[in-house]
Amino acid sequence: MLLRSLLEIFPVPEYISMPACGLDISDRSIKFVEITPGQGMRRFGESDIPPGLIKSGAITNEQALTEVFKKFRSDNKLLNVVASLPEEKAFVVRISLPRVEKSELREAIELHLEEYVPFPASSVVFDYDVVSENEANFEVVISALEKTTVGSYLDVLKASGFVPLAFEIEAQALARALVPQYAKETFFVVDFGRSRTGFAIVERNSIQFSSTVSIGGDSIVSAIIDRFKVKEDVAREMKEKRGLRRGIDAELFFAITPTVSVLRDEIVKHESFWNGHKEEGGKKHGEIDQIILTGGDANIPGLADYLASGSDTPFVLGNPWTNVINFEHTIPGIPLNQSLRYATAIGLALRRTKVTIS
């Protein structure tokens, strides 16, 4: 915490600062984005992870995964990284604490931790953000994971030759990439990936809530295979090129809609819960101002329009370059429609640098 504070107050001069590399690890892929302070994106890349090495965020075969990561690191000449930790294994809670000295705040949180996470405090790694404070209380948001989960990712990365500078849950990285700095509105981020969808509420630039459901692009692929009896590669092409366009491909539309209807219902349920839920002490949350769709499968034709039909809240495709570049002057190296796959990696890289938007 001290090092992070010093770097924010006395930033390293650009000519000697290292490029910031964000490493996004999911069940089925590994991606990186490298950002150079003052210049924006420098490099990016990705590779598949064989099925079964990571299941629902849990590493099941450290040795085999280490070999995959070694090759990825060598092929891309990577070293220092800020890496993601699985959303499925994280607990994000907001709590109110009686005011103490700021130097004692972490210890005060630890004393109350077992009231909010289902593990002994001694077995948990956590970080926190102060959302607000007054003379009587602190409002803090806590992100917590079991030490065994963090330890397994740390062991694999080190054995692969990476130097992990920091870890962060995906929701935190996505918020940093997609939500404008200093925004006062409340955002609902929907991260639609291959194997699952993550939900995160961002208020005053801080994660307030996160959860996941096991619905993703692979669920759509399975629905297409069941309906049309085609091979997986054909089903993926149908999903990515034809998607949910009712007036153009009605049969495919009706094959996919049972799956995406469940996702739409989950979005509505989460939005309704947040807008109707009150904080400790009875204070009402700020209602969601915008829903942001991101993730590797967010670009399925017609998906955004279909999901948006379940809510009156403005619904947009995310822009992961919001806090990196100005599109009036610069074009990123990744096409915008593909860069949604890299939103988490971009947010992770931004943790290590203050990029001047140009």
Computed structural class: alpha/beta
| CATH class bucket of the largest domain | Alpha Beta
The total strand number stands at: 15
Net shape: globular
CATH architecture of the largest domain: 2-Layer Sandwich
Order of helices and strands: HEEEEEHEEHEEHEHEEEHHHEHEHH
Q: Give me the Rg, rounded.
A: 21 Å
Residues in β-strands, percent: 25-35%
In DSSP terms (H or I, runs of 4 or more residues), the helix count works out at: 11
Q: Give me the side-by-side strand order of the main sheet.
A: 3-2-1-6-10
Distance between the termini: 29 Å
CATH superfamily of the largest domain: ATPase, nucleotide binding domain
Sequence stretches where pLDDT stays below 50 over 5 or more residues: 1-16
How would you summarize this macromolecular structure in one to three sentences?
With 358 residues, the protein is α/β, with parallel strands linked by helices.
Helix and strand layout, with pairings?
Blueprint: H1 2-9, E1 20-25, E2 29-36, E3 40-48, E4 54-55, E5 58-59, H2 62-76, E6 80-85, E7 91-98, H3 105-112, E8 124-133, E9 137-146, H4 147-159, E10 163-169, H5 170-178, E11 186-192, E12 197-203, E13 206-213, H6 217-228, H7 232-241, H8 250-276, E14 290-294, H9 303-308, E15 315-317, H10 336-339, H11 343-350
Parallel strand pairs: 1-6, 6-10, 11-14, 14-15
Antiparallel strand pairs: 1-2, 2-3, 4-5, 7-9, 8-9, 11-12, 12-13
Helix pairs in contact: 2-4, 5-11, 6-7, 6-8
Describe the overall structure.
The protein is α/β, with parallel strands linked by helices. The protein has two domains: 1-88 and 148-179 and 322-358, 2-Layer Sandwich (Nucleotidyltransferase, domain 5); 181-319, ATPase, nucleotide binding domain (Nucleotidyltransferase, domain 5, 2-Layer Sandwich), CATH 3.30.420.40. It contains eleven helices and 15 strands. It has helices spanning 2-9, 62-76, 105-112, 147-159, 170-178, 217-228, 232-241, 250-276, 303-308, 336-339, 343-350, and strands at residues 20-25, 29-36, 40-48, 54-55, 58-59, 80-85, 91-98, 124-133, 137-146, 163-169, 186-192, 197-203, 206-213, 290-294, 315-317. The strands form four sheets. Strands 3-2-1-6-10 form a five-stranded mixed sheet. Strand 8 and strand 9 (137-146) form a beta hairpin. The longest helix is centred in the last third of the chain and has 27 residues, at 250-276. It is globular.
